[in-house]
Recover the amino acids of this structure.
């Protein structure tokens, strides 16, 4: 019974932490939509008719959607640039601090989002 309660608490705490994740969305000039979640770093994209998708040599990461290039950090783990929009991570690469001209404000411990300032483009 104790294990069940502990497991339930762990799941509940994890879902509370990530349920507060902020999704930043923007479009390029042709209407492709891109987004990134600032706490989890999950990146997603939309396509328009006729778009081709290009992958890296290992076929694991998308490097281009249509004519928009997607760049990753040195280790290939985090998206750092989508077209002309730069994505700045904290020193440890855990959370996103800035997307284009949009600054994300966090609490003292970088756990909760307090707000945003500016805009992506």
């Amino acid at each position: 019974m104790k294990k069940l309660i502990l497991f339930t608490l762990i799941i509940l705490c994890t879902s509370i932490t990530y349920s507060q994740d902020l999704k930043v969305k923007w479009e390029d000039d042709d209407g492709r939509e891109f987004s990134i979640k600032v706490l989890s770093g999950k990146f997603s994209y939309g396509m328009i008719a006729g778009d081709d998708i290009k992958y890296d040599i290992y076929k694991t990461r998308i490097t281009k959607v249509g004519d928009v290039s997607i760049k990753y950090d040195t280790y290939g783990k985090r998206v750092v640039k989508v077209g002309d929009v730069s994505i700045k991570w904290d020193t440890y690469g855990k959370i996103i601090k800035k997307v284009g001209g949009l600054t994300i404000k966090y609490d003292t411990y970088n756990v909760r989002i307090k707000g945003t300032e500016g805009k992506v483009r």
Summary: The longest strand covers residues 23-27. The CA atoms of residues 47 and 57 lie 21 Å apart.
